[in-house]
Amino acid sequence: QVALRIRPMSTAELAEGARPIAHRVDEQVVLLRDPMEDPEDVLRAGRSREKSYIFDVAFDSTATQETVYRATTQGLIAGVISGYNATVFAYGPTGCGKTYTMLGTDGKPGICARTLGDLFQAIEDTSGDTEYEVSMSYLEIYNEMIRDLLNPSLGCLQLREDASGTVQVAGITEVFAISAKEVMQLLARGNRQRTQEPTAANRTSSRSHAVLQVTVRQRRQGRGLRHGRLFMIDLAGSERAAQTQNRGQRMKEGAHINRSLLALGNCIKALSDQASTKYINYRDSKLTRLLKDSLRGNSRTVMIAHISPASTAFEESRSTLAYAHRTKSIRATV
């Protein structure tokens, strides 16, 4: 499932005279208008200045956190408890609301808090002959290095593939949890360790991909062990250096961010090319290796793409819409 969320115009965009060019037409269609095209241009008179993109669900700036959660993520919980994998990731340019959607604020909690609340509630509601064990790990991928956000002193960690082909992070801290509140406290602790720096596009720009992995192990009498994994991922902002005015260290970070997002885009493109049977290179980045199971079929995956409606963000919005639209053509077989 691919969703698109348009954030409200920021005060900075309004101050520089930007006008809204991205509009949600109905529950699935988003319209993007090119602000540079001249309506008086006779040579292009036959061409439409607007392009529409269709998604599974689209949200405008009036959509609440609850609405976004219910339409995208709530339906994944039953599957995770039953032993399937699920992945939710927020994609889009710097400063378009990814972290707000995933983590939210104290007053308006995001997808992580709501999912965990419902997950523990669902476990509580299931029959008494089943034992559940919930564990979590929280890591960031920064400049192609993996850091444990729950225990940063471990330094740079490596990815390992076990005999069954599942990619694991060697030595990552795995914490067993008994309530959503406890997990949110651990998340808050991890977020304080996350690499954030100001850029011209966003005062608290996330310079890393943050990956929360929740594993639910289910032991039913006489039925053996099942386990489901839920990934919740706040990707770093896809960005052009011109837009973020990055130099030096920020520029290097941006190059690493864009390289891993390009690798993700290449995997998505290869997977969505129905006629193609070519090799899909998950090894291009740590991000794609970690998400291998989530992308290749044995997982239910939700992407929530984010854009700004401002005319000044047209190039970013157009490439994000195209990327998300391409993702929509992947057909997973769980």
Notes on the protein architecture:
This protein is α+β, with helices and mostly antiparallel strands and 334 residues long. Helices cover 31% and strands 28% of the residues. The chain is built from eleven helices and 17 strands. Strands 1, 5, 6, 7, 8, 9, 12, 15, 16 and 17 form a ten-stranded mixed sheet that branches. A three-stranded antiparallel sheet has the order 2-3-4, with helices on one face. It has a two-stranded antiparallel ribbon with strand order 10-11. The longest helix has 25 residues, at 248-272.
Helices, by number, come to 11
Tell me the overall shape: globular
- CATH class label: Alpha Beta
Poorly predicted regions: 197-204
- Our count of domains comes out at 1
Fraction of residues in helix:
25-40%
Please name the CATH topology: Kinesin
Going by CATH, the architecture would be: 3-Layer(aba) Sandwich
Roughly what is the average pLDDT, rounded to an integer? 84
Structural class: alpha+beta
Rg calculated over all Cα atoms: 20 Å
Total number of β-strand segments?
Answer: 17
Distance between the termini: 13 Å
Strand content is: 25-35%
Order of helices and strands: EHEEEEHHEHHEEEEEEHEEEEHHHHEH
For the report, how would you describe the main beta sheet?
Answer: 10 strands, mixed
Fourth-level CATH superfamily:
Kinesin motor domain
Main location: other
Biased composition (Polar residues): 196-208
Domain Kinesin motor: 1-330
Protein name: Kinesin-like protein
